[in-house]
Structure prediction request, 773 residues.
Amino acid sequence: MQRPPPEDFSLKETRPHLGGGKISGDKLTSTYDLVEQMQYLYVRVVKAKELPGKDLTGSCDPYVEVKLGNYKGTTRHFEKKSNPEWNQVFAFSKDRIQASFLEATVKDKDVVKDDMIGRVVFDLNEVPKRVPPDSPLAPQWYRLEDRKSDKVRGELMLAVWFGTQADEAFPEAWHSDAATVSGTDALANIRSKVYLSPKLWYLRVNVIEAQDLIPGDKGRYPEVYVKAIMGNQALRTRVSQSRTINPMWNEDLMFVAAEPFEEPLILSVEDRVAPNKDEVLGRCGIPLQHLDRRFDHRPVNSRWYNLEKHIMVDGEKKETKFASRIHMRICLEGGYHVLDESTHYSSDLRPTAKQLWKPNIGVLELGILNATGLMPMKTKDGRGTTDAYCVAKYGQKWIRTRTIIDSFTPRWNEQYTWEVFDPCTVVTVGVFDNCHLHGAEKNGGAKDSRIGKVRIRLSTLETDRVYTHSYPLLVLHPNGVKKMGEIHLAVRFTCSSLLNMMYMYSLPLLPKMHYIHPLTVSQLDNLRHQATQIVSMRLTRAEPPLRKEVVEYMLDVGSHMWSMRRSKANFFRIMGVLSGLIAVGKWFEQICNWKNPITTVLIHLLFIILVLYPELILPTIFLYLFLIGVWYYRWRPRHPPHMDTRLSHADSAHPDELDEEFDTFPTSRPSDIVRMRYDRLRSIAGRIQTVVGDLATQGERLQSLLSWRDPRATALFVLFCLIAAIILYVTPFQVVALLIGIYVLRHPRFRYRLPSPPLNFFRRLPARTDCML
Prediction:
């Protein structure tokens, strides 16, 4: 597989003309200063009055057609109404205007041919300009004219102005570049939108005990457990050890709940009467709205809940209440942060309870300018096309730009702002192809295609600096890594208090409840999966929906699955971390072997000084680290990090490894391929097993020094320890350190190629390998 040119996958610094420069004298735009200005002609069609009837009944079904050159937009029509109100806005890109007049025509909708009622014509040279924060332009009444410019009955209220994408009317406007999209649902799917993730809570159910259960078969000891269901989540306790009608568990079950709380917690106490048969001994439903909410580790009060049981009487289900009860402690945990993202690139680390939030430390501003070189994502009318939009996520706030129809170089120029509460967080920007236009909804289950994504860690950004870069959009496909285009972003992180931000570096990354009452790794994995499912489901229900495949791609669902490529990448990352230590070891070996006699003599002198004046050791180490840091400041990174194909081993992965990575879970591949992969995994696991065994052997040899497993070796070691203790008591420490140092740094003439006696002694010590089967 040929390696792609690395410069093609690199980050490129750009110098776009942000903010449009000076506007209306010396006033600069403040709200849209991280994007390039885009000029639009806005037409707000408000209402009409006194429209004449055109059909036999003397009424009309009016709508307005706004026409500018080849672009034409229409309002919705009203049935039999002479005073309709539309209040719709149309936006025409100034770059594409090829006409000098704008026509707003009122028409009567008819079965055969729509009749013209009247029109208003505007000369574009006379249209005023509006710059926010100026107040919106007031609409005016215009008398309708016929094609000969004669006045006719009826008036139309309009406002026409030139503005930018900073205009309040921009997000809800009909855009001329989306003229091919028809239908209310499709138009809603292409508009920009801001979404908020639901507020997530951890729900802790501490099942303590039950009382007075009535099993069906009273002649046996019941095997009772508790099953809890909330929405799609189901958990169960272990079977109680006390096999009586008063079982005890004292076990915690953890769920994820989202506001508004729509579904109750359903608990059932069940008796395992046979291997695959359970009998329900009682149920209870608990609404979440009135549960206790705790913000720290102090326990909440426990409560007894009555269990209800349904029995069949004459074919009907009847409810019987009896004395069975269950004792539980249930609360909503506000002191945890509900993890819905990978902890490696979380965008929010605050606890659920707003009372525990600290003030923000700054503001993140993101300008999504444009994309270039996008690949065709689908085919329409026999040619490739892409309808691209962007999604950005930081904290609970998701944004979605408008969809640019049929363009491989879309220009969005939209700017968004987030409050920042922790600098060690990551903003994620994804680019997608909108597959829900042109009737794709009817094709059944069309999914928005991923074009690529970018992650930017805020702690890597200098404050108050505007970063303008073109990021490569890289996606891993079964046939290898592919560059899908580039996205042009402008990012600025503004800090409100440098002192507060520096203080953040001394605080724990997660809220304190994660350390006082930590959750297990398996619990966190399960809860994260549930949280992503809830967020995905809620955002899918928004209008327009942020679809499941988009949310899961942004939240990196499935990133924990096995991947040979990712395992190799992580191994080489570890080797990269250890390479510094290995380099120091090699340098010290050269010193010991006197490769450079001058350097070795200087090291001898430094060592003697530090031994004679040990109080200089720590200051020397910290001064050395300080000087290294100052020296490296000259080569500090000047741009944000981006997706690295070489670090990820994406550009050198074997096709079979990629095919395995994209395989479903459980697998859908043929048995011979699965067997081959299983054998490969066994061989890798065998090597890991050998390494782990070797580490265990070294540890067991250390233990055997004093365990008398080898009586002669332990006797020698104990005797050596006694002699060493006596010598070290009477000899100053500095003399001992000096002798050891000179011995280690001795000249090669006094060295032997054979291993040293202490190493030989250690290697002869017994381990427990001979006890292994």
